[in-house]
Amino acid sequence: MRTLFIEGREEINEIIKACKTCFLAMSENGRPYILPMNFALEDDCVILHSAPEGRMWETIKANPKVCINWTLGEELAWQDVNVGCSYRVKSKSVLVEGDVEFIEDFDEKYRCLKLLMEQYSDREFEFGKPAVVNVGIFKVRIDKITAKEFGTKPVTPWNR
Q1: Each residue of 143-159: pLDDT tens digit?
Q2: Whole-angstrom Cα distance, residue 33 to residue 56?
């Protein structure tokens, strides 16, 4: 089966926004560390939030270079049900590399929380001061973005 590169940023953004979870990869003392996260996408930034302390925060403070993955689709397909090598998972994947920027400004944190909720709901939300003050918000500025589509059938004269 074929793997195709996805070049168009509009299609890449559609893949990202169709996902509910991203996976944030970090390096902790030279060892990989990855966490599932909720997110928002704004232009060339990914917005993430969590408690403002703990292993993840210590890791990205020590090394702000991170990688984020989104994967959409898990459809199993095959060319011949009896041939193991013909099986594939049809999916699309986006990979982002960038540096973390911690957000401390109250108004910017509030704005980011609204963007995060827009990813998951059409409802309008308000946030009290304690909610904004006590949440950790950070952005990952996209330095590099790549996307691929996996498990597509090769185009041949008989399956066009």
Answers
A1: 999 999 887 665 555 54
A2: 8
Q: Using alpha carbons only, what angle is made at residue 43 by residues 39 and 46, rounded to the nearest 5 degrees?
A: 25
Cβ–Cβ < 8 Å for 16, 145: no
Q: 53-97: per-residue pLDDT in tens?
A: 999 999 999 999 999 999 987 666 666 677 666 666 677 999 999
Domain residue spans of the chain:
2-152
Architecture of domain 2-152: Roll (2.30)
Residue from 127, 109, 108, 147 nearest 17 by CA: 147
pTM value?
0.86
CB neighbour list of residue 144: distance below 8 Å, 6 or more residues apart = 96, 97, 98
Question: What SS3 state is found at 82?
Answer: coil
Nearest to 77 by CA among 145, 21, 10, 159: 159
